[in-house]
Design a protein that fits this description.
The protein is an alpha/beta fold. It has a single domain, classed as 3-Layer(aba) Sandwich (Glutaredoxin), CATH 3.40.30. The protein has four helices and seven strands; from the N terminus they run βββαβαβαββα. It has a seven-stranded mixed β-sheet. The protein starts with a strand and ends with a helix.
Length: 157
């Protein structure tokens, strides 16, 4: 199976990073779970966000990086950074979350476009070399996700 390099993220603001911007390059050597969501997306709220929180907790003692990407492609006015800050606090989301950047003339955010995402939720698994190993639109079964993360963690740096 052939994999491609995961595109770098375009982020306008980070949360839960102590002011530091994250890049794929800065995470090289670590497997990454990138969780793209919208706070008003029913599938995200009911399934994907709770799953990402469970993943972050379950793999907290490993070098897995769990990163959220708030990628808004509709209802822009209702899902700004202030509302996102409240959402993250109320849902106890402690892993880093970036706000997917927009170009003024484009409705689709830049990271979403670069990854050719179909919508939210989208889950991306990126290996230690920065290769996109899986991209899945919708909910991925917990057991399958855990097995795929374990495979990435077992690979040498």
């Amino acid at each position: 199976m052939e994999f491609r390099h995961a595109p770098e993220w375009s982020v306008s603001r980070w949360f839960n990073t102590a002011g530091d911007a994250l890049t794929l390059e800065s995470l090289r050597g670590r497997p990454v779970v990138l969780h793209a969501f919208q706070m008003l997306c029913p599938g995200c709220v009911q399934h994907a966000v709770p799953q990402s929180i469970k993943v972050a907790e379950a793999f907290a003692n490993t070098d897995l990086a769990v990163v959220g990407m708030h990628t808004v492609f509709e209802h822009h006015h209702a899902m700004g950074p202030d509302a996102l800050a409240v959402y993250l606090h109320e849902n106890r989301i402690r892993y880093p979350v970036g706000v997917d950047a927009h170009e003024d003339s484009q409705a689709i955010p830049m990271t979403m476009h670069a990854y050719h995402m179909q919508g939210t939720p989208t889950l991306c698994l990126i290996d230690r070399r920065g290769m996109l190993r899986r991209q899945h639109f919708g909910l991925l079964d917990d057991l399958r996700l855990g097995a795929e993360i374990a495979t990435l963690l077992a690979e040498p740096a």
